[in-house]
Amino acid sequence: MYSFLNDYSEGAHPQILEALNQTNLIQTVGYGKDEYCHLAQKVIKERIHNEQADVHFLVGGTQTNMLMISYALKHYQAVIACDEGHIQVHETGAVEGAGHKILTRPHVHGKVTCQMIEDICQQHTDEHMVQPRMVYISQTTELGTYYTRDELKALYEVTRKYDLYLFLDGARLGSALVLPDAPTLEEIAQYVDAFYIGGTKMGALFGEALVIIHDDLKPQFRYHMKNKGAMLAKGRLLGIQFYELFKDHLYEDIGLHENRMADMIRQALIKKGIPLYEPSATNQIFVDLPQNALEAIEKEFMVTHMGAIPGGERVRIVTSWATSQEAVLSFVSLIENL
Amino acid sequence: MYSFLNDYSEGAHPQILEALNQTNLIQTVGYGKDEYCHLAQKVIKERIHNEQADVHFLVGGTQTNMLMISYALKHYQAVIACDEGHIQVHETGAVEGAGHKILTRPHVHGKVTCQMIEDICQQHTDEHMVQPRMVYISQTTELGTYYTRDELKALYEVTRKYDLYLFLDGARLGSALVLPDAPTLEEIAQYVDAFYIGGTKMGALFGEALVIIHDDLKPQFRYHMKNKGAMLAKGRLLGIQFYELFKDHLYEDIGLHENRMADMIRQALIKKGIPLYEPSATNQIFVDLPQNALEAIEKEFMVTHMGAIPGGERVRIVTSWATSQEAVLSFVSLIENL
Amino acid sequence: MYSFLNDYSEGAHPQILEALNQTNLIQTVGYGKDEYCHLAQKVIKERIHNEQADVHFLVGGTQTNMLMISYALKHYQAVIACDEGHIQVHETGAVEGAGHKILTRPHVHGKVTCQMIEDICQQHTDEHMVQPRMVYISQTTELGTYYTRDELKALYEVTRKYDLYLFLDGARLGSALVLPDAPTLEEIAQYVDAFYIGGTKMGALFGEALVIIHDDLKPQFRYHMKNKGAMLAKGRLLGIQFYELFKDHLYEDIGLHENRMADMIRQALIKKGIPLYEPSATNQIFVDLPQNALEAIEKEFMVTHMGAIPGGERVRIVTSWATSQEAVLSFVSLIENL
Amino acid sequence: MYSFLNDYSEGAHPQILEALNQTNLIQTVGYGKDEYCHLAQKVIKERIHNEQADVHFLVGGTQTNMLMISYALKHYQAVIACDEGHIQVHETGAVEGAGHKILTRPHVHGKVTCQMIEDICQQHTDEHMVQPRMVYISQTTELGTYYTRDELKALYEVTRKYDLYLFLDGARLGSALVLPDAPTLEEIAQYVDAFYIGGTKMGALFGEALVIIHDDLKPQFRYHMKNKGAMLAKGRLLGIQFYELFKDHLYEDIGLHENRMADMIRQALIKKGIPLYEPSATNQIFVDLPQNALEAIEKEFMVTHMGAIPGGERVRIVTSWATSQEAVLSFVSLIENL
């Protein structure tokens, strides 16, 4: 059985693993103050053309979201997200567990819109209600869609109007970075106050690089990390991995590969007349499968069930850095022969 | 200007104030271990026919909700409410500030329904999502409606099915207690795991009596109160007030008075053909006022604006223990002459 | 049995109770935005000659300490106190419950010293340790001693050196304010960043007036109060009481009375050769009583046991606004006749 | 410069790294539900002869301590530790950040004693004080000492007397496991309620295995992990590493190696007449170095400064799985030739 369940089914991209092997016996200081972390911070800051940014390496996505949001907000302040936002649905209440409310509105193609932000801000003007103070978005979204550079810029502007921080969760950022109308890394850094570059779902063993742009979000962030149990002793492991990902565009190469694999699957489904649920261009495909198609697929492939639909099931298919063209061709052939 | 803004515009019911005056110089021990608190606990437990219940006296409603919910839940557990629930909208994120998510669905006449609970529980079965563990309702609701005894019993049963605590916020409980198809105090105590009897909005200077029925919610609750800064030094003040409210049915008398005052206003509005927004039988009236009616009223009375409607404004009118029949007759006369 | 157990055994000073009676039926807005709160804020700001200060009225001392400390600190920051500090010993972990460590050193006559602060700050310079950010002191202390104006000024200076906020808990402030070498209210406001004026132990039914001097501690504090369940619906009750306490020096009169009552007891004990444990000039007396003296006293008076000593018991005797000269004379006579 | 700064200066033990390489392309499910985690859980449960234990894999020590303590305690409850405990000094307030007070007493050779626990419990019997509910110890301690099996058993018994959980932090457990009078893994599992087996400081890239013995500490712990951002997506990485450490006693082999390296250094120091600060038998050496010795050492080796002493400096020297005999011999020779 070949798994299309997610993009963290395997270990690390071979180039990353090789770097971990090569550096294994070198002695460094701990907690992210080593030369590999410095190198990785340097290449990321060069890529965004912002020497003043702070870059911190963390282990996982929920941890990173919770840390950034809880640093930015007081307990009487809230973060705005859409109802399908990862922090709202799939983090077991981590943001609320840290003491902060999430204000939501129904998503539009998986995304937060300027209108939602306007509405929420206009309705929360009273000291008996939480005060909106941050907007959380993810690139790509939970439905595989993405924000264009114009959409991001518009969100940035509305957050300026209401004195909100804009925070972008980039767990799957690589898949969007390589799309022509999506914002580049440098553009993202211009239009958000903080964002993270996902490693776990982009070929690293683990790790996320949190990039903080807004000066108010920077002071003593490392204390905050330690206080929440999020400072890795062998911090070098994160530096080594992110240096590999960014020293020569491995990150974008992985994004291109996974999108290309996903496109082959998408084309086969469309050609067969099977409707995509939320048409996407990234490495996540949401599709409404008739029961017979589902059964045929699940003889050879694992896919994620999202819920029953009339006559079948909505499923998610995910490609990754490790997805083999062989597996994809085999899947495509199966679809063609349904 | 006469205020119909809320039910906490004045001090205390004269009988309560008199009791505070009479006992002022008597020495007692502190922190709610005095004889007045014991007397008040005794009369409340007699009224619900449950000697095993624990009764704690707290100062305010948000405090009481936050204390009970944070005691009952782990941080990975959530409380279910409707989207208009007081804890969801009007407590400045107190529940989330204490570390707990609120799961909501759109209200039905201001109320939580069994179907909402079923839906939420069936969608939250995965360790990446919060675990529903409590249902929060209020009697009366934020829209002035109330749960009938059958509705409460049905909610109780669905909470048993999903292993949820049922918690009732009775900030305005007196207004419902005197309605024939609403549950009595004894019935409430049978069909919830914890509830509070509001004092602040029912004629006390301040204070809420939290009644804990479920044994798992009882141990060391006083430590929890102290830890959250919610244990009043001169706890006697709460005991004295609740003893007055419950030793001779003053609580119900106040409920009857405020409903009677509200009924007179409701009749006048209906007779005049002005539509009630959410028809109610309690001390809160929500009504869609044409602009001219609003303007005429606001020359003499203060009412709460709830939001613009075509051609006017939705407003809330609230009666209380202190609402004078004179003021109500004057208001009624104004409506008749519109 | 007459109680010298504490200074919150009775209700309110008659003048305060009278004001509550007089204003009972006047309608006001809620949540501390009424005219009585404004009046009380005005007289307090006049007394400290600081129009820029913010004054908030809260219900109790633990609540006030927890609110101010949790507003001022991030979770990786700590508050410095002595090992006998109220927040360290007698608040059931409220400060830690809100997420903040207390760093302590052994007290010197119940007080924090400059040397303690220096030591702690010099030992906490590493991101694996909490960062000291505030100093907590109380006037008077848990042992009935007090900070002189010179001591307070010295603490202020050391807190400037290490970028620490200085916060003064004035639960029993009135007893110190009337001593000649203790800082006046105006001086306190010059040498701290925030302090509270105790009402509960100084003749109010309940209530503490938090005075915030440092601009960084002011923004949106009312949201923080509401989020922690600490905003009283009938906020007027606090305004009315503090206006009475400060419009004509009732606060200082109460301090003088309780100190005078305590002095009479102190003189009798000293004359009898019974050693005071921590000599004080305020309304708390700590004394090491021989067993026979304890037994004789406890036939007529209640005192607080602090722990066994060889041949007897250390006890605390507290006077208050309500302590009658008659009771004190009777106690003195008992001591003389031991 | 060769580093004796700590036991996490290098990557992973070669056998562990090899296992990560070998399994890299195998697809597994995420979040610790894969077959490698199951294997690792199985071998650990066999080693402690307790099939009912729960084993969870976490990323770091501070995270593990904070998770276990915050799961076990309510906010009004406290954990007992000694003043040198890792949670008290070196975790940037993580335990308090999660809402819990640490009650401390001065250490005895780096350890908690039964007497400390008795004292603390007898002094905390009042609802105005936190309630002791857990004891935290570490094996080995912050001073390189360790609890014998008799000492552990005695602590276990006193915790039973006062209804306290006993929790053992085993960040450096391997160094103690191989000492004859220290408790074995099986004995530890008999005499504590929860403990963790350190990986980060024992040859893993990262990771700690939390073993929960007491049934009350088990339910829904994985929800708690996720809520705190502590559930690793590629959980397999932890399973693979702990399986290598425990399938064939690699863990104990590493402990033996690091102790043997430390012994050689200790012997050289003692022979030279340089006093060990806290004599130990484990991989941490604390020694009071004269200034000339320190200077000579620091031309070739890095050691941790613990604080000035008359005429020199107290330093810590740490050996690890990666410490080479060559480096140790060179260090020994340097000491002999001082």
UniProtKB/TrEMBL annotation, chains A, B, C, D:
GO terms for molecular function: lyase activity. Coiled coil: none annotated. Pfam families: Beta_elim_lyase (PF01212). Its cofactor is pyridoxal 5'-phosphate. Keywords: Lyase, Pyridoxal phosphate. The keyword Glycoprotein does not apply. InterPro entries: ArAA_b-elim_lyase/Thr_aldolase (IPR001597), PyrdxlP-dep_Trfase (IPR015424), PyrdxlP-dep_Trfase_major (IPR015421), PyrdxlP-dep_Trfase_small (IPR015422). This is Beta-eliminating lyase-related protein.
